[in-house]
User: What shape does this take?
Amino acid sequence: MFVEIIWDWNGTLLNDVDYSVAQINKVLTKYKLPNISVEKYREIFTFPVIDYYKALGFDFDKLDFKLVGMEFIDLYNENLKECKLNKGVIEVLSMFKKNNIKQGIISAREHNSLLVDLKNFEIDKYLQYCFGIDNNYAAGKDVLFEKYLAKSQTSRKNIYLIGDTTHDCEIAEKFGLNFILFEKGHQNFSHFNGCRIFEKIDDISKLSEIIYERN
Assistant: This one.
């Protein structure tokens, strides 16, 4: 059976949750809004991200969302190399590549920034494709999936989307893909019902069992 894996990037392969909270707290401080904890962040983070910013307390009747969003993105990009991949990412990507499993990334990260990230973290060599959005405001990935899947030769029932947000889960449901949740990412477990879940990227045997169980 031909199996394909579509990975999410931020929060799934890249361990950037604490880093993202540190950067948004800088923006909140500038606008004299309360800082948040990682736990609070994982409760309120959502897509589209403008709703998350509203939950943080921003009033976009008075402020420009694009301006505030770019302030965060600029801070985020400034020291992203401080982040690390989640433990076990290289081993898992390498394992699937050695087994000739097609892998790619579809991300709400701006496309050119995503390409830079993948090169900097040295994982581009494991992937057969990567797609990011055409702006910095993480509006959603639906269009990217629609375009990619229209050309994909893989049966959708054999495609596994691995991500960390309800947006990933909703996309999988919308397009008839299998969804696997990495629960240490940008949203906490309370947002999800009925998903297949793994706690560690490097739990290779468990991940392999889920991927190959239909064979």
The mean pLDDT is 91. The beta strands are 4-7, 14-15, 84-85, 102-110, 129-133, 159-163, 178-182, 196-198.
